[in-house]
Design goal:
The chain has 124 residues and is mainly α. It is built from four helices and no strands. The longest helix has 26 residues. It is elongated.
Length: 124
């Protein structure tokens, strides 16, 4: 028999609802930006490559840190980095490069949506 003070522990929030898909989406976005940077470097698109590499590494690092202990500030940082990836082609002037622009839009959107989902889940 268990004592009256014994309570069943709930599963971590990451296992409920949106957690697993949002986490997977966020990790994929970071990794995909890093891979896109590698492809862009090989095609001599250095500005676009750096613009994908830095956010990709930051998203991947923040995702890893966030899995150890959820912090809303980390998700807000991923949200801002995702927004940066969305606007970078126009701010940095490589929007004419369709492949780089679409990579930034797709993966920036993935990071932004996943961070927003985590933040929404944290507020619930």
């Amino acid at each position: 028999m268990s004592s009256p003070n014994h309570r069943a522990t709930a599963a971590p929030a990451a296992w409920h609802g949106i957690g697993i898909p949002a986490g997977t989406l966020q990790a994929a976005a970071g990794a995909a930006l890093v891979l896109a940077a590698w492809v862009m470097i090989s095609t001599e698109r250095s500005r676009a490559a750096a613009s994908a590499l830095v956010p990709g590494l930051l998203i991947t690092t923040l995702y890893g840190a966030d899995r150890f202990c959820f912090r809303a500030v980390l998700e807000r940082a991923v949200l801002l980095i995702g927004i940066w990836a969305l606007v970078a082609p126009w701010v940095l002037g490589f929007a004419a490069n369709d492949n780089a622009t679409w990579a930034h839009l797709a993966f920036g959107c993935m990071a932004t949506v996943s961070a927003a989902a985590w933040l929404r889940r944290a507020d619930a």
